[in-house]
Structure formats: C-alpha cells, structure tokens
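re: ur msg from earlier - yeah i can do the D-glutamic acid complex, just paste it... oh wait u already did. ok heres what im feeding in:
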Amino acid sequence: MIGIFDSGVGGMTVARAIEKELPHCRLVYFGDLARTPYGSKSAETIRKYAVENSEFLLKKGARLIIVACNSAASVASDLLRDKFPVPVFEVITPAIRQVWQTSKIGRIGIIGTRATITSRIYEEKIKEQRKDFQVFSQPCPLLVPLVEEGWLNKRETKMIIRRYLHPLKLKNIDTLVLGCTHYPLLKKLIQPRMGRRVRVIDSSRALAGELAVFLEKNPELAKSLSSAGENEYYVSDITEAARATAERIFGRRINLSLP
Ligand code: DGL
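and the outut:
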C-alpha cells in the first residue's frame, strides 16, 4: 500500500492524482483533521505530527510514504527519511524539478501557507541547482479556509486571490508554484489572474508522475503496493465540511473512517 498523509483533506488532491496515474496501487490515506491546520504551527510541532502520522500509515501496511502536505514536507521530510525504512516522497521536490525544467527566464513565484513560506524550502532547493533563478514568495493564509468552506468561485475568493497575487504579478514571474495541497482547487481562478504566459505548477500532478517513473524502476516495490481491496481514507476527526471537500476533490463520495 501507498501511505499518504496530510493535515486534512486537501492532500486528497495528491491521492486523486496518484489514483489516476497508478490505478493498480492501493492507497491508505490519513488526514489529521483534529489537529489541522499545520500551516500556522511551529516546525517542531509539525515534525512531531508527521512522525505520528507516518507510524500510523506503516501500521496500516504502507510500504512507501507520501507527505502530501507542503507544510509538513517543508520541515519534516528529512526527519522521516532518517527515521523510517521505507521510501519517503513529498510534494516539494517534484515541483522544483518542474521549475528547473520549464522556467525560461528564472523568475519564480511560490505561494503557500506561512509554515511553508517561512521555511524558505522552495527558495533554497531551487537555488541548489539554479543560483541564477529569482524566487518571490507569498504566504496566502486565507486560501485554505476558503477552500474548506467550498468558496471556490466566489467574488470574495477572487478578490483575495487578486490581492495575494498582485505582488507576484509585479515581479514578472514566468512560473508559479502552488505550494499548498488546497491550491489546485483554486487553479481555475489563479491561472487567469496570472495570465497565460505564467506556467502554474501543481505539485500533486508533478509528484504522481515522478512516483510512476520510480515504481517502473522498482518493480518489486511496485508489486508490494498493489493488493486487492478498496483504498482506505482515515481522518482524525470527521466533519461535514471535510466530507464535502473530499467529494469535491474526487468527484464521488468518499468513505471517511476514524483511525
Ligand atoms: N496541507 C497544508 C499544506 O499543504 C495546508 C493546510 C494546513 O495548513 O494544514 O501546506
């Protein structure tokens, strides 16, 4: 099984992308709704939660872990790689590879939660290979609650997006990374705001593509990830809003269980 965790249901955008790319793999998902949001918590607390979430997924039979939360990936990926004897994937590295591959003028915008932006992880990693690239970051703390409220096409959401993206527009970026699990659900508002010349990178798709390539090269592991049975979706608290967001992401009803 592939184990995926996020601070809530936003990481289901990643689960959905993996389901499409690797339909034969079985997934076990954990959304830490009781302790969400992670994006406004300290790095230390997020690390503790990330370890606990991974332990839960391993107990459920995961042979590979995906950190489908940018905030957790920003501060806990190395720790999880050191601690657990399974491959750990996260949403940041594949998005950065796409940045390196596709940006023509090296002016990159990053949007994410406060935890992700404060960690400066995107900036550091992008510069590991391209010191010449310029990175402009913008925390967008109001977007997660708007998505969770289902305000995906409201005038107020458009106004807030316009406000957040304005400084990035002034920087003439050619690439914008959606550095948060919830933002793919707002892509239809973000892309037109930035204009057609800006490439908007969605980490969930980038990750699913890289995972497929990795599994092709590791057929034994790939075999251990596919087994009979349904995908399992656990959350540490069940709310109506979570059910609705999950349904919006998958386009079908998702059976949420408590651990
Ligand atoms: N999953 C988080 C992320 O991608 C967003 C929600 C939260 O702050 O917990 O950063």
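cool cool. The two ends are 16 Å apart (CA to CA). ping me if u need the other ligands too
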